[in-house]
């Protein structure tokens, strides 16, 4: 399965969710680690242990960094990425609240090159909407939808140019999905050209504090055995 898992809850607050995530780490595209809306001011031993366990179980860890839609200086963003790499052994980074329009694309390219030089891989961008096509050429993965299930089923549309890009470069993050409909959300994302997905049942203000039900064995089987025999599993590592 290609599940991107932002789990924004402290391991001490919900250890059961983290234990289940670690057991299912191989099913994920990556786990987004977010100790304090970023790496925090100092290392958090609980998050460091959780990140190490995810990686030991065969998963990848992405350090969460807020770019404030291009308002944060690139040096600050790069410093946050460095802290994730040094403190938590992150593999790559999840750059949240990214820009999406053509005028900001050159700055995005420079930022991605900068964090790649630090050793971050993969680099995931989250504008939360379909950006200009150049953004998908810049990063390893782009979140082109982040929003509620009701919006996803009633007001979703993708530009025609997205057909030029492999589905493995596109991710949809949907919250507020009724638990029985999580398998449908997975199938819908794949039908809409997103090979990576992250449906959760949680709601605002922090829908990502709950672990996605997509990692349960039942949801995996109902969704059609995503990642089993589809030719993608061996390409993610």
How do the strands and helices of this protein lay out in sequence?
Layout lengths: L2 E4 L8 H9 L4 E6 L11 H12 L4 E6 L7 H15 L3 E5 L8 H13 L5 E4 L6 H6 L2 E8 H6 L15 E6 L6 H10 L4 E2 L19 H6 L15
Parallel strand pairs: 1-2, 2-3, 3-4, 4-5, 5-6, 6-7, 7-8
Helix pairs in contact: 1-2
Question: What descriptive keywords fit this protein?
Answer:
237 residues, alpha/beta, TIM Barrel, 8-stranded parallel β-sheet, globular, disordered C terminus
Instruction: Pick out the low-confidence regions.
Output: 217-237
Count of the separate structural domains:
1
Helix count?
A: 8
Shape: globular
Classified by CATH, the class is Alpha Beta
Give the % helix. 25-40%
Biggest sheet: strands side by side, in what order? 1-2-3-4-5-6-7-8
Mean pLDDT: 91
Q: What is the CATH-assigned architecture?
A: Alpha-Beta Barrel
Order of SSEs, N→C? EHEHEHEHEHEHEHEH
Query: Structural class, from helix and strand content?
Result: alpha/beta
Largest sheet: 8 strands, parallel
Terminal CA distance? 13 Å
Rg, Å, rounded: 16 Å
What's the number of extended β-strand segments? 8
CATH superfamily label:
Glycosidases
Q: Strand percentage, roughly?
A: 15-25%
CATH topology: TIM Barrel
């Amino acid at each position: 399965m290609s599940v991107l898992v932002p789990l924004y809850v402290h391991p001490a607050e919900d250890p059961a969710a983290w234990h289940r995530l670690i057991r299912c780490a191989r099913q994920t595209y990556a786990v987004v680690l977010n100790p304090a809306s970023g790496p925090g001011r100092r290392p958090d031993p609980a998050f460091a242990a959780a990140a190490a366990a995810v990686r030991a179980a065969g998963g990848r860890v992405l350090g969460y960094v807020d770019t404030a839609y291009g308002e944060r200086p690139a040096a600050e963003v790069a410093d946050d990425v460095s802290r994730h790499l040094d403190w938590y052994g992150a593999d790559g980074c999840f750059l949240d609240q990214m820009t999406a329009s053509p005028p900001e694309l050159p700055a995005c390219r420079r930022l991605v090159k900068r964090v790649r030089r630090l050793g971050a891989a993969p680099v995931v961008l989250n504008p939360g909407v379909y950006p200009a096509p150049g953004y998908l050429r810049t990063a390893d993965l782009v979140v082109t939808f982040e929003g509620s299930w009701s919006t996803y089923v009633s007001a979703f549309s993708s530009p025609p140019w997205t057909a030029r890009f492999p589905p493995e470069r596109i991710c949809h993050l949907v919250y507020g999905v009724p638990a029985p409909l999580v398998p449908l959300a997975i199938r819908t994302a794949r039908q809409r050209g997103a090979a990576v997905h992250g449906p959760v049942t949680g709601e605002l203000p922090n829908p990502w504090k709950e672990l996605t039900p997509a990692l349960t064995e039942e949801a995996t089987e109902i969704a059609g055995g995503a990642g089993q025999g589809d030719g993608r599993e061996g390409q993610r590592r």
